[in-house]
Design goal:
The chain has helices at 18-30, 52-62, 70-79, 85-93, 118-121, 125-139, 147-163, 179-192, 203-208, 219-229, 234-246, 260-266, 269-274, 285-298, 316-326, 338-341, 382-392, and strands spanning 2-3, 35-41, 101-106, 109-117, 143-144, 168-170, 197-200, 252-254, 277-280, 307-310, 331-336, 352-359, 366-367. The chain is built from 17 helices and 13 strands. It is α/β, with parallel strands linked by helices. It is 45% helix and 15% strand. The longest helix is centred in the middle third of the chain and has 17 residues, at 147-163. The chain has two domains: 12-143 and 351-370, nicotinate phosphoribosyltransferase; 145-341, nicotinate phosphoribosyltransferase (Alpha-Beta Barrel), CATH 3.20.140.10. It is globular and about 55 Å long. It starts with a strand and ends with a helix. A six-stranded parallel sheet has the order 7-6-11-10-9-8.
């Protein structure tokens, strides 16, 4: 057993999930004056050690020095033609401003809040979560397995996934054990994953290991649209605006911001044909697959021409179960996160950072909600959650 050694901090501005950059481009184009508030939610009720706030503050302050390099910009130009030159020039000049993040520790509880223009808040979530995770293991002095065992476990996992005849992407940045472990996992996936491993949500590692950056949009995209256009129009306007910005590229739609039943009511024939598929992120995956297959058939669309990306707390047993049930029904692929980047002996953390309010125009703050297919994953204040459920006809 060896202990994790703390890293100096982030080394690349691209060490983030790809959908943060694709959403940022959309926000800059469509909502450049919108503001947003995000907060840290400690779902696992983790007890933070003394002075954790100071360590997190120092790590976040250090991010102010990050800049897009010429090589990184070239990688994005070559790999992501849908990121236009104006956006890439903007990103080249972008810097993190740590003053946008407030941190307060009371006893063993941590509060983290982010507030500024939406196009700036959007990049903070994933790096802060990964820093919280890494610092927690460092300051708790929790041991982990050896580098060699991490590589061997990852090799075994990707070989097992290959035997299932499926494709897998790595989605584990936000709750990774550490940058070092993430690097080891990506090295093993790239070396041993031929035929099964297709890419990563982390843009820095996509560049480092010459693989595909994967992602489209997240719940916050639709949560904001709920604040701007109302809950009934949130999915429709969110999908319409995504199509307006990307014109058919990045065509995997996220379905469960206001429950998938509401989503399917609004995912009409135009959207069903335009988008390549749908991502599943909560609720029963087989029930979801059956609903989506039935939906495509109702629209006169061959389900085998479309894809489900499963991404909800996956491990080998879940993936094998889903793959068997969906065989020859619809295209499938899997985004696997924590079980790849934080399977090292210590218990993974259960935490998120979510948008809580939005100011779509220069007026008042509006509460936002996410109504997952699992009630335990609902986010937002209870009054607004109940209002959204009433408006959308959710029992």
């Amino acid at each position: 057993m060896t202990n994790l050694k703390p890293q100096a901090g982030f080394t690349s501005i691209l060490d983030n999930d790809f959908y943060k950059f694709t959403m940022q481009q959309g926000v800059i184009k469509l909502f450049p004056f919108a503001r947003a508030r995000y907060k840290f939610i400690n779902r696992g009720q983790h007890a933070f050690p003394p002075n954790f706030d100071q360590a997190l503050r120092a790590a976040i302050d250090a991010m102010a020095t990050l800049k897009l390099t010429k090589d990184e910009k070239y990688f994005l130009e070559q790999s992501c033609p849908y990121l236009d030159p104006v956006y890439l020039d903007f990103l080249e000049g972008y810097t993190y401003n740590p003053e946008e993040v407030s941190i307060v520790q009371t006893a063993d509880e941590i509060e983290v809040h982010i507030e500024v223009l939406w196009y700036r808040t959007i990049l903070w979530e994933v790096p802060i979560l990964s820093l919280i995770s890494e610092l927690f293991y460092v300051m708790k002095d929790l041991a982990r397995v050896s580098d060699e065992e991490i590589i061997e476990k990852t090799k075994s996992k990707i070989e097992n996934y290959r035997q299932l005849g499926i494709t897998v992407a790595e989605f584990g940045t936000r709750r990774r054990h550490s940058y070092h472990v993430h690097h080891l996992v990506m090295g093993a996936l790239s070396k041993f994953g031929k035929g099964a491993f297709i890419g990563t949500s982390n843009v820095h590692f996509a560049m480092k290991f010459n693989t595909k950056p994967i992602g489209t949009h997240a719940h916050e995209w639709f949560m904001f649209h709920g604040a701007r256009y109302g809950f009934k129009m949130a999915n429709v306007m969110g999908l319409s605006h995504w199509a307006e910005v990307y014109r058919g590229d990045l065509g995997i739609a996220l379905s469960d911001t206001y429950t998938t039943d509401v989503f399917f009511r609004q995912f009409d024939k135009m959207f069903s044909k335009l988008f390549d598929g749908v991502r599943h992120d909560s609720g029963d995956p087989l029930e979801f697959a059956d609903k989506l297959v039935a939906h495509y058939k109702k629209m006169g669309i061959d389900p085998l021409s479309k894809t489900i990306i499963f991404s909800d707390g996956l491990n080998y047993e879940k993936v094998a179960h889903i793959a068997k049930a969906c065989k020859e029904k619809i295209g499938i692929s899997f985004g696997i996160g924590t079980s790849l980047t934080n399977d090292v002996g210590a218990k993974p953390m259960n935490m998120v950072i979510k948008m809580t309010q939005a100011m779509p125009k220069d007026d008042d703050w509006i509460d936002v909600v996410k109504l997952s297919d699992e009630s335990g994953k609902h986010t937002g204040n209870e009054r607004t959650i109940e209002l959204a459920k009433e408006i959308l006809g959710i029992e």
